[in-house]
Each structure stands twice: as C-alpha cells, then as structure tokens.
Amino acid sequence: MHWCSIGRSGLSARLLAVTVFVLLTCAPVWAQTRSSVIGTIADAQAGVLPGVSVVLQSPDMVGGTQTFITDDNGVYRFTDLPPGTYQVTASLQGFRTLARAGLRLPFATTITVDFKLEVGGVTESVTVERTTPAVDVTTALVTTRVDKDMLQNLPLYPDLGDIKWLYSLSPGTVMSTSFGGPTGGSTTKLEGQDMQMDAVAIGANWLEEVSVVGLGANAEYGEFDGVTANYVVKSGSNNFHGMADYRTTRPNWVADNMDSLSPIIRERLTKPKIFSRYDFGVQFGGPIIKDKFFFFGALQQFYKETQPINAIAPSTENWPRSIEKVNWAVSKSVKAELMHSYNRRDREGWAGNVTREAGSVSNSPTHFWNVRLTWAPNTKSLLELRTGGQDYVVDTYPMGPNTKAGPPPRRDSVTGISSVNIASWSHYLQPRKSFGATLTHYADKLAGSHVLKFGTDIQDQSETTVSGFPGGMSFTDRSGVPDQVTIRADTSSESIGKRRVLFAMDDWKVNDRLTLQPGLRFVVNRGSTPTSGTVVRANMLEPRLGMAWDVGQDHKTVVRAQWGRFHQHIFTTAWSFMDTAGGATTITSRVLADGSFQELNRVTPQQTSFIDPNFTFPTLNQFFAGVEREIFPEVSLRVTYIRRDFQNYYAFIDTGSVYAPVEMRDPGPDNVAGTPDDGAMVTVFALQNPGNSHFVQTNPSDADWKYDAVEVVAQKRFSNNWQFMASYIRSTSRGLANNTNPSATIGTSGIWANPNTRINAGGRSGLDHPNEASLKATYHSNLLGGFNVSGAWTYSGGYAWSRTATFQLPQGNVTVRTAQRGAEQAAANNQLDVRIEKSFDLGTSSRKVSAFVEIFNLPNLGFAPPLGYIEASGATFGQPSNWVDGRLITAGARIMF
Fold first, then answer.
1. Coil, strand, or helix at residue 69?
2. Domains in the chain: ranges and CATH
C-alpha cells in the first residue's frame, strides 16, 4: 500500500465523500500493501536538509519518474511501488548530486535509503552503486520471500505445476502445516486476492515472488492460523521481455528405491509408473504506452500420464492455463491494475483397486480475476479500491460408455475391488466475490510520525455439492456374489459464508529508531444454509501490537516483537450438514438369489447434528520476539522465538449417547488375543443407548494445543552470481487437539464425541516436527559460456504416532490408541534435489537460451513421508502405507529475451 497525502487543511470534501461511501457500502477485499522507499537527507554535519529534490526512477514503475521534495525533517518517501530495480537521486542547489542505483525492491517491503550531501557545485555529481538493504527496519512484520531468481533456478518437483505448495519453500512449513498450525490453516492469495489452492494454477516462472507472512502480521492481515502466502505475478515494464520453457520426465527416468523393503511390502506398494509428463509455457510482457500502460501475459500446458500406486491402469491429467495482467497510469495520481487467470484441469483415470470400467472423468474449469484502483491526491494520502473473485467448478462423472444413469457400481467386500461404474458422481461449485477499500494517511508532528490505515473487507462465498450413485444404487458383493444393495436418490447441500471486516492500524514512528504498530481488526462471520437460515453468528476482535527497533544508524539491525490475535478463515463446509432439505432416504437391502431385494433397513433424513448458537472460529494467540541483522551486503540473519496458542477449535460433542466403561485386554501388535504379545488391560467404553446420539458442533474448552519454537534463518538475495536461504527450527507442539487432518478428531466420531477416540489422544501433535532444517542455493558461473548449479535440501523430523488396536463392543468394532499419541516417531523426511543448467547468450546477457537437468531425491533414499505408517495392530502394523518416488530426472530447455 502506498502513502498518498492530503494537505494540512485535511481531507477534501470529495475525498471524504468517496471514503465514507466506500467504507460504509463497499463489499471489500483484503488491502494489499505495496512497497516503499523512504529516507532522510542530511548534510555532512548530520543537519537535516528540507527542500531537496529526490527523484525515483525504474523501468518497472508505471507512471514514469516520480519526484518528492523533502519536508522540514529532511524526510522523503515513495510508496505504492511495484517490485523492481530502482534508482534514487537527491539534488539541492549548492550541494553535489548523489544517486543510489541498483536498489532491488521486493514486494510489500520498505527499504530505508539515507543520503548525506556534501557541499559542491551544482554541476558536480556522484553516482554510487549500492547493494539493496537486506533488512526492513521499519516493521514488526517478518516476511520470507521466495523471489523469481530462486523460483526460476531451484529444482521444483514436476507436479508443482499447480503452485499450491510453493510457499512450503519458506522456513516453518512442512507438508501442509506452518508453525504448528492445523492442516488447511494457511491462506493463499494471488495478487492479494484469496484463492482456492486446488483451483487456481499458474506457472512458477510467471511469478515475481512468493511472499510468506506468519509472524508480525499487522491488522491488515487475516484470517489464518498457519501463514498467509501471497503469489505476486510479474508485471510488464518499459522493457520488452519474454520466456518460453519446456520440461519433461520420461518413463525410464525414475529409479527403484524399494530394495530394502520385503517382498510383501513391495507387492503392496506397487511402484508408480510415469508414461509421459511435460510442462510447456510461454510468456511476454512490455509497454503498450511507455511509462503509462504495461502488459504481461502467459500461457502454459501441463500434461501427465501416470499409474499411481496399486492402480490397474494409467491416469491422465491435462491442465492448460493462462493469465493476463495490465498496469495503467491513468494519471499522475490514479493507477489501475487488472488481472485475469483461467485454467481447466481435466483428469481421467483410476485409483487403487478400481477396474477399468469404474474409472472416473473430472473437469474443473476456474476463472480468477482481480482489479485494483488507487488514487493519490497528494503525497500524504492514498485511497485504494479492490474487487475480485473466483468461479471454481468440479464435475466428476463416469467414464464412457457408462453414465450417471447406470449401470450401478459394485464393490467386493472381500477383495476390496470396485468395478462396473464409478462409486458416485458429483458436481461441486464454489464461487467467491470480494471488494475492498483502504484509506492510508501520513501524519507528522504528532509525537512522531504516523502512517494511519483504515479499511474494510467483505467476502461472500458459497459451496454447492450434488452427488449420487449411478442408477441410484450401489452394490456390495462378497467374493463376486451379490450380497447387499444401497438405494438412494441424488443428494445435495449448499452452505454460504459471509465475512465483514473493519480494521485500523498505525505505523507510529516514535523517533528515528523506534516504530510501534498498534492495530485492531474486527471480524464478523456469518454462515447459513438455504434450509436452516443463519446458523453461525461469530463476532471476533483481534488486537495486535508490534514493535520494531532500528538498533543502529546504519539501518542494518532490527529488534522485532509482536503479540497478536488471529482467527481461522471461513470453511463453509463446517456447517453444510445443516442443509437438510437435499437429503434422500437410504434403503439397505439383501440381494436374494433370484436377484430380488429384501429390505433390511430404511433411514429417512432427519437432523441429528446441530450448531451451538455461541459457535465461533478457532483462535490463535501469537507472540514472537527476535532480531535480524545484515551481516554482509545482501545477507541477513534472523533469530526468532515463537509462541503460538491454538484455542477454541471447533468439534462435535454427543449430548445424547451414554457409555459405560469396560475392561478389555490389548490384543498386542498382532491384534490377536491370547498370543504372547498381548498388552495390558485397557478401559474402553460400550454404548448403552444406540440410536440416541445428538451431536452439537461447538468449541470445547480443552480443544487446544501449544507450539513453541526457535527459528534461525539466513538469506542472501541473488547478487555476485549466487544466492541462498538456510534455516533451522527447533520446536515442540503438544495438546489434546491435533494439527493433522482434523476430521478424525473433531467429527461425529472424534475426541469430544466418542470417549473411545479420546483414549491416549493427548500428547505430541501429529505434525510435530521437532527439528526442521533446509538449504536452498543457486550459483552461477561464467565459465564455459555460463552455467547454473542449484540445490534444495530439506530435513524434518518424523511425525508423531502410536499403535491402535480394535476391540469388539456392542456398538461394533472400535479402534483405540494403546499408547499416547507421539509415543512413536516416524522416520525423518530427508530430501536432496539438484539442478544443473547450461546457458548460451544470444548477443546480450538478457537474451539467452539454456538447457537444464533436475534430479530429485538424488541419493535415491527410501523413506515413508509424513502420515506414511500403518498404526493399526495387525499383520501390517508399522509398515509404510506410502512411499516416495525414487531418484527422478526431468530435463528441459528455456529461452529468455
């Protein structure tokens, strides 16, 4: 967000009217902060110099050259700046002109560039080439950036074409959990606009950077209990630029890493096969009108044909995508930015234990758009308006010649094989619409200087699901003989979510060294369904207070700290069960020898689950404190202590069922009673009144966990032919609630609804990784015409697990943990990937063609990834349930101009 200003007379009547209208009536979106260059100009004796002409230049800046005259304190500021490379020039009559060039400005960053002008002739000038400050000393916000240099040079796994895991390149994220948060707790944004990770796909080469915020987020940021990752798309500039790239993996480029496994496990974990996989893209950007109108556009095609583990036939995935973006300087004070993205993911194939005729076809077209308009009437204020949205559709239906009308599917309960037709078809629709407004005003001479921000955000979204059995029936066979049939008409559900936000914050620069960032965010969430009306009414207050202390005059060391409250973002699926009108009667019948049906059970839809009127969204109370230092030019080191308290997680409780304790013998790892490995007696719980369950979704007082960590991160931007990012995190995460997929702990058979699930449930969080380390690096050599060598190493301690056993109780088979969660620790994830690229200049260094090879899992290690062990007692207890690919090679080429 940039600072615009209003004169000392205050807001003009026009601006005030527009602001009031927007803040009261606009349905807004998250206010997206842009970057700034600020500084103080003084003479050789450190006396401030007002009236200095400061000029900002960059080919990446729409609107052309900007000029600022320093104020009475010698301060200048340029705001609302896009990422790019800048030059700042300061000049004043009687002093030598001084320029700082080659300043690389990342997204959502403020860099401080001070000048000391020496007395001299007006024609005398000195240009100083200077490295970009590596530390932002003006904010408590801790931002990890994966910039375009890293994105274009690191080995990125081929299936990362959908970019949804690119933010895991930043420290603190392992699989889908960030800083101890729950799976699904992070939010992703494209150009500041919320997006569905599984829906929107853009190429990694289209991105300027991935900006990840988890610590120090001010009142502009919400709602998340992991991190917020913003994907920033490249823009056009005054220079034409483009790229075309191609990468592929061939069938014989995957090594076997299962030699250490027993023949039984190897047979169960059938090696996946790759028949074809490639990704091709082209992009182009430049000026339509120099300094006034820039464009960027890209097309990409991703395709793969593979055979997953245990599948009996190949599956295909075809994923074309495109993006268009324009930046327009309507006038000196008004700028506009428009972006649109489209992708269509078409899949056809088979999962494990599914015959050919039971395969499925899936189509998911998605449109995503974003519009941003800023008005800067003067140098102290900015009004920003935003609107955007997403239309996401997924249709899953039978593979021809089968149809939704039949034939009905079959599943064999003995062999586990599904056949004849797809198990069920579905139609899923998720539209999102959002709008936004933020007013930013710079004020000085009020106990320091202030950047005041006031904003409002609104987002409306819904989810609609329609599904059914082909032909309205689903058969269960026993060793090939028809046994039972389930008969049910099509079902549907719809859930609606509305978010309304008001926020206010201040970047209060108390003096030259200390910045305070108080803020308050008020969130109103409403959830409803067509049949039940409004079922969720949650009003949440989120106070935040941050601090940044610029330790030295060189602006190279900053001490940061913040306490803040956050809430989880809206999941409309959390109350979709309240839409009861779309249900259907379910009839279970025995299939007789003559093919006729004998009804066994009939269930008529009725509401057995409800929502507590006081239901609210999970809370994250976060504190961190740390120090960051520029230890060498372009190299920063930060050390941070992090404490996160995850509270008020929602879960179902059962107020109707009655249980009685029963003592039973643990059957041991073999799950067979009466054998030498039998364990101790276990208290389990037998249901006394079947059919009387009454589920209420609420916020149990003990649905929480705590995360403590120390993080060390060192990073160097690309300069002098190399860059790196290295990190180490030591952490612990413990509690009764769990940060793994919560359906097993918060559902109608979870910890708070079933006392058997609660047994030994507390302890280490499932995705507790006590040690996390990573190193990503790129080196460019000019030898042999130029080549790059890049590598990515990641290590994370294994997830927490423990053995489970099955007991026969009156209500049926019940699975219970026999030891506290975390009694066992899975093998660590230890991965090393490398990339080697040879380039050839085409006349200039900016025009080149290159060829590259990427090698993933270079040591060809065999290990189970997180959630990869079988916890259930029995013949397969402790065996891996999944396995990673062996050494995998991709090759490709790229041309840049």
1. strand
2. 13-129 (2.60.40.1120), 241-896 (2.40.170.20)
